[in-house]
Amino acid sequence: MLFRQLLDSETGTYTYLIADLVTKEAALVDPVIEQVDRDQKWLKELGLTLKFCLETHIHADHITGTSKLRELTGCEGIVPEHAHVACASRSVQDGEVLRVGEIEIQAIATPGHTDSHMAYLVNGTQVLTGDALLIRGCGRTDFQSGDAGTLYDRVTQHLFTLPDETLVYPGHDYRGNTVSTIGEEKQWNPRFVGRNRAQFIEFMNNLDLPNPKKIAEAVPANERCGRMASMV
Ligand code: FE
Fold first, then answer.
1. Which of 30, 37, 67, 166 would give a disulfide with 182, using CB separation of 3.0 to 4.6 Å?
2. What is the CATH number of domain 2-211?
């Protein structure tokens, strides 16, 4: 399996390129519109065919590259079920397994950051956690139908029940971290360690963070699969 973590440094967003090197099929998870040329270069140089782009959730901080990549490659655009994205090729349900050649990508419903968020477990060994679980952190829950109690339940009851050695690849990092494990996050993640559900909700509801710079354009554009208003 080819597994690459690619960074958009302006927004601290990780895109993941996953490919079966025998069949040459590939998937991109959470592509960023400004990085489509980079992603296409990787696909071309490695001789890969993009089968689908997959979103962990409807992002508020960047615009997805899925629409452009669909136009350029003819790939599918797949979003979590219940995401309000009428233009997607299709949606993926909790527990569903998507295949890229011999690689299995299993969706795990992890709402809380948004109401339709999925994590993706790749071949049972690494989990793309989107913004549900970050390295020593988690996504905020104060907009986009976020719910702190739901996030606490999903992380502690679903992600933290994966084997300790499962590699954690987040949707963002703002401190230069790249990968962690479920075992490490259970032991060291300061959002969850030492906090019960009520304390977590209290903490998350009082973060008092400014809105992401691009929220006003990013959310409506992502609900159109990444098309800008001028492109509609
Ligand atoms: Fe997000």
1. 166
2. 3.60.15.10
